[in-house]
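Researcher: Let's do a round of design. I'm pasting the structure tokens now; please hold your answer until I've finished.
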């Protein structure tokens, strides 16, 4: 591991997965710096920083500072301690961000070592298919977004999402679509049609936009959106950000 580059990280911690298909599973979260998008709803900075916050005692919530970049062997040794202290408590390692695939060449080197400890789950905005292709053989789960313009304020790259999903189907993958009151039937149908065309078995998870720790979409509207997707893609769930209500990361 001495010759493997260190990583620019934001956080390393142990917690419960609050979103998507692995909801409720305890994971090791490794959060990478940087993002290639600037979504309207995002209120978190993923800028590179000199220090990474690390939960040395898993589950304690107490964070200490590591200097960036963080060496792989330091992360591996930390995780080995956690797994020894809490055997079988963790389901997988969540590689998240920001957008972790901005670090795909580094992940290509890191993931085989991390995967010896736990399965790998990738949380991604689903816009960088070439980067995914580099590492997909080292990934067990992919939770990808389809970004709708009504919530991001940006133009959706539908072809990039389709190409990404086609690669992600080599793993156990799911698609998350964040929806708000302004989400239109047309854009949501386009997302559902994309998933149905590429891999019909893929679950679509509608995640209502969260504002100030409250769901920002009415229940009637959520039910209407779920029913709309179900007309062409029956494998659709509505799952809010549950970690918000638990008060965990």
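Researcher: That's everything. Go ahead.
Model: Designed sequence:
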């Amino acid at each position: 591991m001495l010759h493997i580059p260190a990583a620019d990280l934001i956080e390393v911690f142990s917690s419960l997965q609050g979103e998507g298909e692995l909801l409720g599973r305890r994971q090791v979260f490794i959060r990478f710096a940087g993002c290639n998008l600037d979504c309207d709803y995002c209120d978190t900075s993923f800028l590179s920083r000199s220090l990474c916050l690390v939960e040395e005692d898993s589950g304690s919530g107490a964070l200490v500072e590591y200097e960036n970049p963080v060496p792989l062997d330091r992360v591996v040794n930390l995780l080995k301690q956690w797994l020894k202290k809490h055997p079988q408590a963790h389901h997988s390692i969540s590689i998240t961000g920001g957008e972790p695939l901005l670090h795909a060449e580094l992940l290509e080197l890191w993931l085989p070592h991390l995967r010896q400890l736990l399965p790998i789950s990738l949380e991604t905005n689903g816009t960088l298919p070439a980067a995914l292709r580099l590492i997909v053989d080292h990934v067990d789960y992919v939770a990808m977004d389809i970004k709708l313009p009504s919530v991001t304020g940006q133009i959706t790259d539908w072809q990039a999402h389709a190409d990404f999903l086609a690669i992600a189907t080599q793993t156990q993958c799911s698609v998350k679509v964040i929806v708000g009151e302004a989400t239109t039937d047309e854009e949501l149908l386009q997302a559902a049609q994309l998933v149905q065309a590429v891999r019909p078995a893929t679950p679509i998870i509608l995640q209502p936009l969260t504002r100030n720790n409250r769901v920002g979409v009415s229940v009637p509207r959520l039910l209407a959106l779920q029913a709309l997707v179900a007309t062409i893609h029956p494998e659709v769930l509505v799952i809010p950000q549950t970690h918000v209500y638990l008060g965990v990361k």
